[in-house]
Amino acid sequence: MRPPPGLAYRVADAGNPGSGPVAKYLTRRLILIIPTLLGILTVVFAVIHLAPGSPAEILLGDYASPEAVAVLEAQLGLNTPVWQQYALYVWKVMQGDFGRSFATNRDVLTEVVKHIPYTLELAGAAVLISILIGIPAGAIAAVKGGGIDRVSMILALLLASMPLFWLGILLMLLFSIELGWFPLIGGGDPYSWSAIRYLVLPAIALSGTPTAFLARMTRSSMLEIVRKDFIRVAYAKGLKKRVIIFKHVLKNAMVPILTVIGLNMGQLLGGGVVIEIVFARPGLGKLLVDSIFARDYMQVQGTVVVIACLFVLINLAVDMAYSFFDPRIRYR
Amino acid sequence: MDFLRTFIYLLKRNRLALACFAVIAAMAIVAVFAPAISPYDPNEPNLKNKLSGPSGEHWLGTDQLGRDVLRRIIWGARVSLKVGIVAVGIAFVLGTGIGMFGAYLGKWSDEISMRGVDIMLSFPMILLSILIIAFFGSSLLNVMLAIGISLAPRFARLARGLTLSVKELEYIEAARAMGAGWLRICIRHIFPNILTPLMVTATLYISTAILIESSLSYMGLGVQPPDPTWGSIINEGRQVIRIMPWISIFAGLAITITILALNILGDALRDILDPNLRRQI
Questions:
Q1: How close does chain B come to A16, measured CA to CA in Å?
Q2: What pLDDT, in 10s, does the model give residues A78-112?
């Protein structure tokens, strides 16, 4: 029997990522990112303008001279109506102009860009560790059951309940202070291999919560897939258990697992802030907190916007990765 | 009340949940009665006795200013639990309001509120708190507000979804037919029927709020010294970690035990509510 024309079209398309609906989906996602980025700018703008005191006074800190405040007020257009100030702000940010740091007098964006590699390396390494430990741990728990299942899930729950910065301190205490295996603090040169020694402990600490979630998610989604009819069919066909688990169960369990990885990737940028403080790692988080203490609000503002934009871009990349793994998502 | 009944049912049936509830209740009692349990000022320095190890007099030792670590952890429980509960309360009220009213009124109000929520969700949670505290200053109230506002979009999403499923039911139609206004329908008819899942989520988010508070305090952005919070005690211990590691270790244990108990309790509550999840998680 011939399938209805619409269905045939969709089935034919599903295997071909360059075709119409997919391109349309990707374009739509890319266009939708513009209002989100605008929204981020709006929130940051609103917070600065709602805070007590004039934005110029806040941005320049406690010891600003009245002349400096007047100059900045003119630059930010603070004498004009709010919507004009907002438009000016968005216009400047779109050109990459976040102003100059009050503390260092360097360009805010240049300073932020310098710190990005440390943060991305940390987040990437943490995701990698959580995948390498979380998925196998969850899969083994689901397949073996019994005692192993219980112990690994208790460990996962414990890991999810620890403050990551405390885990970082414990790791530091054991591996840096007691055993002397890794450097205590710092970030090394992000473009050299030596950076790995600086990366190990912070990355393990940061991977704590995502590893725990990933293990639980892998276990639960595998248990769900195991009950499905097509797995029973695979057993009935006489396939080996290993083939069924790797080829059928794990592969089908990947979509919810990917969701968790995706959600975590972004949140790691936030969690990374405090881990960077623990290990004095010169990433975006440390830049942000140092700027807050230096009352360098120009830098704070720029760093927050960049972190939030990175978060949005990572989430977008993850969404696109889904559509690759699960063709059904493209047509929603 | 439905939620309370579910909760008591859970405690009767599940011994682990009962144990966790006991841990949290003990923490809460310690926090509320800290002035009676440990009547001395937790911020009073005693430099003659600084950095002494655990002893009969100071069970968990003293810190670099000679302050008793156990006393500071007990007083720290006050701040941590208060922030956890109040911040989630703020998030609950704000988020439920936005989600429920938006969903019930539909069209533009739903569209605008959900776009707002999407934008708030495009910040990592802790980043939004840091942003608010950076510009508004770090006081106890601001910390609670910052965490509450950061958590609110999650409640809004949930409340919206629940409202959408409830608002089409017949008793809502009946209320409308009897001439009830939208505010009355939302508060008297929809809210009680979406309360239980919201309360379960609230239980789960108390631990998140406590974790964010401790991270903020650890970074020096939370409640300001000398007032003790668990995060700031870990930070102070971090400075003398080579000689006195237990200060940080004990304060971290206090957080971990509290969060663990809250998580187990929250998971157990969710399992009762959603039997489909029970076998999986």
A1: 31
A2: 777 878 888 888 888 888 888 777 777 788 888 88
pTM metric for this prediction: 0.84
Q: How many Å apart are CA B241 and CA B248, to the nearest integer? A: 7
For B51, left (φ over 0), alpha (ψ -120 to 50), or beta? left
Alpha helices in B188-229 (DSSP H): 191-218
Reported as a single tens digit per residue, the pLDDT across A134-193 is: 888 988 888 887 888 888 888 888 888 999 999 999 998 888 888 888 887 777 777 777
**Best mutation target, B20, B123, B204, B239, to test chain A (most A CBs within 10 A):** B123
**Residue written as tokens 């508060």?**
B187
Q: How many cross-chain Cβ pairs, A to B, lie less than 8 Å apart?
A: 139
Is the Cβ pair B241, A36 closer than 8 Å? Answer: no
Which B residues in the span 92-151 are in contact with A, Cβ-Cβ below 8 Å?
115-116, 118-120, 122-128, 130-136
Q: Which residues of A63-89 are buried (b: 16+ CB within 10 A; e: fewer)?
A: ebeeeebeebbeebbbeeeeeebbeeb
Chain centroid, CA B166 distance in Å:
27
Put simply, the answer to whether B231 touches A163 (Cβ < 8 Å) is: yes
Q: How many separate helices (H) and strands (E) can be counted in chain B? A: 13, 0
